[in-house]
Amino acid sequence: MPNRSQTLARAGALRAMFEAQGAVPVEPPILQPAGALLDLYGEDIRARAYVTSDALRGEQMLRPDFTVPVVQMHMSHGAEPARYTYAGEVFRRQEHDPDRPNEYVQVGYEVFDRADPAGADAEVFALIGDALAHLDLRAATGDIGVLMAAVAGLRTTDARRAALMRHIWRPRRFRALLDRYAGRTRMPGARRNLLAGDPPKSPAPMIGLRRQDEIDARIAALREDASAAPLGAHEVELIEALLAVRETMPFALQQLRDLAVDLPAIAEAVDRIARRADAMAARGVDVGALPFETSYGRTSMEYYDGFVFGFHSVTRPDLPAIASGGRYDALTRRLGDGGEIPAVGGVMRPGLMLDLEGVA
């Protein structure tokens, strides 16, 4: 295993490579306010981050990644366009996988540029791919935006579309909701009895944190959902076909264009993928052999809303991604206090690179 000094030296060399592309080096503090991260991820982030409390600054987290603080910094006072790079430790709890480090060095490159999003996607992917070209890695790409567009176009209630959109990054829950909304699963007996009956005249003693008005609102929402028409079988089949797309880029685009005939809501997202493929080819990426998978990134890239990518070891499938990244336009809206800008970035793990190179 490489030691810390070797890892930091490689991290410095990678950051210098990005600086040569015009990126400004930034160093967000290791201790980050927890509020923005909790607002973004919800309480789930507590299971993945180290949380502490400060009498003056309130709840704080050890930096779980760089992207969120870089976006906050840029949206506060960044110029346009802008490119940033960074290198430093991030901290992730690994209670379910003790063999993985809970502290490791990350190097990143972030591009904020509204002029040519497809070109920016290609720039980030190609630069990181070139830096990793000497390793035996397989690339993986996808686009969360295609599935988001398909969900937005479903002929169903706003509440159902919102629920499906919220669980795009939780494939099992998404599948369960899709089946439920299509009428494929039987309603549990307890829920059926609850929805069929009237609210009790004398409520039972309150247990837990929910108030009675919150419980009543939830029951009303469940009744409204139960009265909605099921999703059409054809729409569900199209979503399933979309999720099954897993091909090299040219064949994936062909399949996506075929699906867009019956699922016109995805047409614009598919056009974005085609423009990105052209921009990648112009940068020397072998697009003909580049894998594309609609479902890629749905379990680990929660703030991405468009292009996603990763580079994985062929010989060491036990390792996490050596590099990963994607587009996060919606995050800039969320943190921009009314402003927004197209943004894409990627991170690399120099320690894993050295490990694959056999550095001891």
UniProtKB/TrEMBL annotation:
It holds the Pfam family tRNA-synt_His. GO terms for biological process: histidyl-tRNA aminoacylation. One of its GO terms (cellular component) is cytoplasm. Residues 13-317 form the Aminoacyl-transfer RNA synthetases class-II family profile domain. PROSITE patterns: AA_TRNA_LIGASE_II (PS50862). GO terms for molecular function: glycosyltransferase activity; histidine-tRNA ligase activity. It comes from the Bacteria. Homodimer. This is Histidine--tRNA ligase. It comes from Sulfitobacter sabulilitoris.
